[in-house]
Amino acid sequence: MKKRGIGFASVFYGTGYGNGFPDISNAIAELGMDGKITIYVGATEVGQGAKTILSQIAAEVFSMSVEEIIFVCEDTSITPDAGTAAASRQTYNTGNAIKIAAENLREEMIDVAIERLGLNSRVGLAVKNGRIFLKTFPEKGISFEEIALLVGDQHLRRTGSFTAQTTQMDEDTGEGAPYWPYTFSVYGIEVEVDTSIGTIEVIRSVCAQDTGRTINPKLVEGQIDGGFAMGLGYAIYEDLNLQKGKIKHNRFTNYLIPTAEDMPEVEKIFIENPESTGPYGAKGIGEPVTLAVAPAILNAIYDAVGIRIKEIPVTPDKLLIALKEKEMEV
Amino acid sequence: MKVIQLKVNGGVYKVDIEEDMRLLDVLRDKLRLTGTKEGCGEGECGACTVIMDGVSVNACMVMAFQAEGKEIITIEGIQRKDELHPIQRAFLEEGAVQCGFCTPGMILSAKALLDRNPSPSRKEIREGISGNLCRCTGYNQIITSVEKASQYLRREEEEK
């Protein structure tokens, strides 16, 4: 018999290293002779979209198109340390460092512009599309390229550093607030359990994700779909079958990950509540989008067949045994 | 040692092979076409998918000698002159690439599907790429890309 049920789960997740551990990102912003801005940063792109989002943050500082930003990352001989691409920390932590470096460079460029244009104040200046100019008199302005020529070989190059606020928990009680900031998310999932063979199919799923501010919707959607697939595998498929320290399921014939046919469509809702300390309000979402999937599926199984499963993955054999036990109790 | 002749991405090649070589080894090690990836090496993950005589195959499961006289298309061969193939373009536009390791195989499976079914439903696309595992994307943006690519290709056909 096929039985359907709906389950919800919510999580909050502290991004960054937390617990008093120093969490520092560094970046460099440089004005090139062609008037383009280069960002040097040790952040690692592993497909999550760090390069895109971090370039967007730099572009926003200068109100220029993202194509005008040259982004150099990962090469440790020329890029400063920005910590690991882990703990969902690159958008918030390294994004902040890049924003600071870019703002420092922008202020330096404004200094050059003020001198060149013979102005007596920073008031009323705008930076846009590769120019610095007076808002009330746009003809009075100077291009980034001209600024680079004026400065010549010295190169305008400024650093930015961001240290996240992390506090150590009380060692005895385990209490405290170790992270800053926290990201929140909720999943609602409907499953169909086939009680004759013990399989579980996800019929419908909705993810509501707090992003602080969504810098790149397509990338956030991609993270949610990817996180859902990992959470789905974690909940019902992926079993390492560890025996005496050896992984017995060491190939894809027995370590099953979701295929395109197992993956449902995921309805996505972004909750935008800007984080005051984040770059343009943004927070990390990479890991949070995975976490609530498994508990929501387990709750949906409970709703469908009235069984609390306490061990994952809920493979058909486990579910059939649980169904049998419940039957015998009655 | 044995010499085989095969056609790859439109070019004819004569290659010295060992008897136990796979098509994957010929492509990567002999012809230096490293866009075809080796994932599991046992036909489960689809990372090494190429098109052989119009059918998608796992290049790790085809022995080199079986490719004698065949026509192979790899990811390096689907670009059109200086332009991306519509499937590649759609993948970029829809964010279908994360780490990128499954991408060449995905694109070739998508091509094999669209070549025989120009207007697949999302369900048919899921089935068509179900032999290609992806750890990052959760597939949905890939499926949207294949849908979009099918529109691009149909529009091209109409304009002809």
Keywords:
heterodimer; A: 330 residues; alpha+beta; Aldehyde Oxidoreductase, domain 4; 2 domains; 4-stranded mixed sheet; elongated; B: alpha+beta; Ubiquitin-like (UB roll); 5-stranded mixed sheet; 5 strands; 36% helix; globular; N-heterocyclic_Hydroxylase (chain A); AldOxase/xan_DH_Mopterin-bd_sf (chain A); AldOxase/xan_DH_MoCoBD2 (chain A)
Provide structural commentary.
The complex is a heterodimer of chains A (330) and B (160). By secondary structure, chain A is an alpha+beta fold. Chain A contains seven helices and 13 strands. Chain A has a four-stranded mixed sheet with strand order 1-9-10-13. In chain A, strands 4-3-2-8 form a four-stranded mixed sheet. In chain A, β2 (24-31) and β3 (37-41) form a beta hairpin. In chain A, α1 (50-61) packs parallel to α2 (90-117) and α4 crosses α6. The two termini of chain A are 18 Å apart. Chain B is an alpha+beta fold and 160 residues long. Chain B folds into two domains: 2-77, Beta-grasp domain (Ubiquitin-like (UB roll)); 86-159, DNA polymerase, domain 1, CATH 1.10.150. Chain B has a five-stranded mixed sheet with strand order 2-1-5-3-4, sandwiched between helices. In chain B, α2 (86-93) crosses α5 (140-159). The mean pLDDT of chain B is 97. The A-B interface holds A 46-49, 218-219, 221-222, 224-230, 251-253, 257-261, 263, 265-266 and B 40, 42, 44-45, 94-95, 97-100, 122, 125-127, 129-143. Chain A: GO terms for molecular function: oxidoreductase activity. Chain A: It comes from Natronincola peptidivorans. Chain A: Residues 2-264 form the Aldehyde oxidase/xanthine dehydrogenase second molybdopterin binding domain.
